[in-house]
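As a warm-up, study this chain.
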Amino acid sequence: MKAIIYTRVSTDKLAQETSLLRQKEELHKLAVENNLEVVDVIEERASGYNIERDGILKLLRCIQENDIKAVLIQDETRLGRGNAKIAILRCIYKYNASIFSISHNGKLQLSESDSMVLEIVSIVEEFQRKIHNAKIKRGIKKAIVNGYRPEKNLSNRNQSSGREKIEVPIQEIVRLRKNKLTFSEIAATLRGFGYDVSKATVHRRYREFLNENEGNQSL
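Now compare it with the structure written out below.
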């Protein structure tokens, strides 16, 4: 399992360097004990109340983009303090990564209050997504009633090679993805347009779009 070590001290004082070194040594040992492959080590010198930290942003980006499944920390206060800690914990767990801490000699055990807050945040986010998706679906149905036919604007509708592809409005997929909808939610929204598409089809078309854009940018 790929893992990242994250260490933090609050100041640039020379005395804090000893703390960073100790954290790294203990976390490498923790990784070995839990059969984790450390692929990166992030050091940070900043207040835990500040959420706009380069190290934390790098950590979250790596988890999301590089299939990182574990984060190793001394304790949860190294990630942050106060509301910043809750927000960062939520992001890490949302990306399906586990947190290992020295203080628990293994997987982090959240306090009852932190667990309750995270559960509330998760519920609120889920209802926000549902409300947002419902608004989009209602708008789509209204647009169709008014004669809007997005399929007529498909740039690739006349292009075919091999097996015929299910036509989907790729720009709509990209726009909805930017609005943080899941592939399941996007598929449901497109079915409101009258497209018989699955979550797998939406995901595949989205990946094809990204790959094509990356190829064009490299030219």
